[in-house]
User: Fold this.
Amino acid sequence: MINILSIESSCDDTSAAVIRDGLLLSNVTASQSVHEEFGGVVPELASRAHQQNIVPVVDAALRRAGVDKRELSAIAFTRGPGLLGSLLVGTSFAKGLALSLNIPLIEVNHLQGHVMAHFVHPADSMIAANPKLQGIEFRHPAFPFLCLLVSGGNSQIVLVDNIKREASKDIKREASNDIKREASNNIKREASNNIKREASNNIKREAQTQNHTPSMTILGQTIDDAAGEAFDKCAKVLGLPYPGGPWVDKLAQLGDATRYPLAKPNIPGYDYSFSGLKTSFLYSLRDQMRAEGVETIDELAAKVPNLREDYCAALQTTVIDILMRKLKRAASDLGICQVALAGGVSANSGLRAAMLDYARRYHWQAFIPPFSFTTDNAAMIAQAAYYKFLDADFCPIDAVPYAKTTI
Ligand code: KG4
Assistant:
C-alpha cells in the first residue's frame, strides 16, 4: 500500500492531503484572511500564518484519512514556484517529517500540480464525508490534451502527453547521426539497413516508454500579467476587496459587457498579454471620472448606475475572449479535442461557461476540475506525487525551494 502525505504552501493557503494507491483520502486547507485588509498577499504575514497552520492542518489531514504517520510511504511538498518564505515552511516541515520517519521526499512543481488536479480521484470514504464532492463525475482527459492553466501568477497553454516526445526526438536525431557516421565509413548497405532497422526499433520502443508522470510542454504563456492578476488589479482599481477575481465574477453577472469596450491586445503565437487590457481599463475609468468631474471611484459609482457591474462584465468578457481564442487556435493547429482548464481562475463562472460553449461548437471534450481542486490545494500535489512515487522520482534532502520556474 502506498500512502503519501502532501503539503502545499506556495502562497496564502496551507494545505495537506493524503493519497493511498492513487485515491485521495483527505484534503485539508487553511486559508489566510490576514491579507484582506492589505489588498494583496503580504509575504511575511503569509509565512508566519503557514507556521501557525501547518501542524494542525497536517494533523487534520492524517486524522481524516485514518492514516498514522508511521504508515506513510513518502512526504511530498510544493517546491515552487511561489513565495519563498511560504515555500520554506512547507519544504522544511516535509524534510523534517521525512527524515524522522526515514522515508523518501518528493518535490512537486506547483504548476504541474494544477494540471494534475484533473487526475484527482477521491476515495468513496472521502466523497461520503464531503457533500460538495457528491454527484461529481471524476473523469480525466485522454492523452494528449491541452490544458489552459490560469492562476494568479500564470496563464499558459500546456500540451500534456504520456509519451516522452522530446526524448524520442533526441533519439531520432542521435540515430540518424549514427547512420550517417556509419555510412561515411563505407559500411555495406546491408549493415546500414540493419542499423536503420535497429534505430527505428529503438525509436519505437522509446516513444512507447511511458512514465507515470505525464510530460508537459508550454505552447504559450503570458509575457506580462497573468489573467488572475489582471482580474485582481482591475478589481482593486474598482475598490473591490482582495482577491478581486471572485468579486469580478459575481458583479459581472449583473453587468452589461458592451457598455465599456476594452482593448484586446493581440500578440503572435500562443502567448498572452494582459497589461494593455489593464491600462485600457484604467484609462477608460479615468475618462469617465473626468467626464463626470469626480475624483474617486466611489464618487463615480454614486453618479453612474451599475458602474462596477458593467466594468466587471467588460473585463471578464475580454479576458475570457483573449484566453479562449488562443486556446482554440492551439487546439485546431494540433488537432487536439481533449481540452482542460486548471488553476484558480478556472473557478470563474464565465470561463467555465465559455469552455462548455467552445466544446459544443468545436466538438471538444472539455474537462473542468471541481471547485475544491481549482484553487491552491494539496490534493493536486498528492496526485502528482503519487505518479512520481511510481516512477521512483525522489528528491534529495538538500533540495531548496524556488520562487520562479516554469513547468
Ligand atoms: O491558482 P490560485 O488559487 O493561486 C495561484 O497559484 O495563483 O489562483 C488565484 C487567482 C487569483 O488571482 C483569484 O482572483 C483568481 O484566481 N480567482 C478568480 C476566481 N476565483 C479565484 N478569478 C476569476 N473568477 C473567479 N471566480
Observations:
- Residues 21 and 93 are 23 Å apart (CA to CA).
